[in-house]
Amino acid sequence: MAVFDRRKASTSPDSDDSPTSTKSKKSHVLLRIFTSVCHLLALVFLILVCIGNLNSRPVLRSTYFLKIDLSNIIPRSVPNAVLINSLARSIGLHDFYQVGLWNFCEGYDDVGITYCSPHQRFYWFNPVEILVDELLAGATIALPGGVTDALGIVQTASHWMFGCFLAGTVLTFLAIFLAPLGFSSKPRWSHRGRRIFFREIPLMLFTLVTLILTAGASAVATVMFTIFRNVFESAPELNISAELGTPMLAFMWIASGFNLLGFLFQTGTCCGVCCCSGKKKAIQEGRLSSSGKAVTEKPRKDTARDGAIRRFGWKNRRIGA
């Protein structure tokens, strides 16, 4: 008579078929995908920063931190130099110089880039040395005094910037695979202290370090090359112009923004598990007992036959007889 038993099997609130469990699974899958995509996009933009200005290929040649234009510089050695605009190539210089993470490139306005220096780890841009080495015999130029005074600071800042960009790129790559591990399909109140201290908090700190390295390198680059530009343009009588590379600045700050999103979601998950677990709400809804154990509906003790007898009234007819 069990075929007449229409009672549905009881399910736990946290079982795989419950609506709460299904919704939780969908949420954590979407969060994992979103976090991975954020770090993946950050990695793409960081790679563009790292390979910018390596050579004269399209995109790379227009990705630089700073571009110095010397095409209209006024040399000291020319008589009545104040009244003359002399081309840079007449004294052995190139029309422009642009700086990347690994090297510098130079060229002429009508030709483009003609030479890029060899790639160098912890590269730092020394305009005084580069320009003096290229001057023709007997030619001299006047550079703003602030350029020479700031070379020591520039060297140190460039080394830190180089190290932070490379370390940030490596950690961002690892975050694509590690950061999604911080999201679980289980209810927040079901996590134990071991998971919190050995997974949630370490992953939050990991994404924080990744963000600090990326944003720190971007901030150092922005400040340092902005100062460089201002120093070169501080002497308008020399006709030296300088401009920041907008694509490079955009790439590195967009990468920092995506890493910030990944860190914020990781922090929100960690805080949700540690502080805002929703335990009180689960107790009120009957999904959790006051002792912290999940509540499951106990099956009834009566058999299927007893249920069928009670449903069709056979027991009552026997009693009446």
Short structural summary:
By secondary structure, the chain is α+β, with helices and mostly antiparallel strands.
Largest sheet: 5 strands, antiparallel
Rounded to an integer, what's the Rg over CA atoms?
34 Å
Spans of at least 5 consecutive residues with low confidence: 1-17, 81-86, 288-292
So what's the CATH class? Mainly Alpha
End-to-end distance: 22 Å
Keywords:
321 residues, alpha+beta, Butyryl-CoA Dehydrogenase, subunit A, domain 3, 5-stranded antiparallel beta sheet, 9 helices, 5 strands, 51% helix, disordered N terminus, transmembrane helix, Integral membrane protein, SUR7_domain, SUR7/Rim9-like_fungi
Question: What can you see in these coordinates?
Answer:
It is a single chain. The chain is α+β, with helices and mostly antiparallel strands and 321 residues long. The chain has a single domain (21-282), classed as Butyryl-CoA Dehydrogenase, subunit A, domain 3, CATH 1.20.140.150. The protein is built from nine helices and five strands. The protein has a five-stranded antiparallel β-sheet with strand order 4-3-2-1-5. It is elongated and about 75 Å long.
Outline the fold blueprint.
Elements: H1 19-51, E1 66-69, E2 96-99, E3 104-108, E4 112-116, H2 127-134, H3 145-149, H4 151-178, H5 193-232, E5 241-244, H6 246-274, H7 279-284, H8 304-312, H9 314-320
Antiparallel strand pairs: 1-2, 1-5, 2-3, 3-4
Helix pairs in contact: 1-4, 1-6, 4-5, 5-6
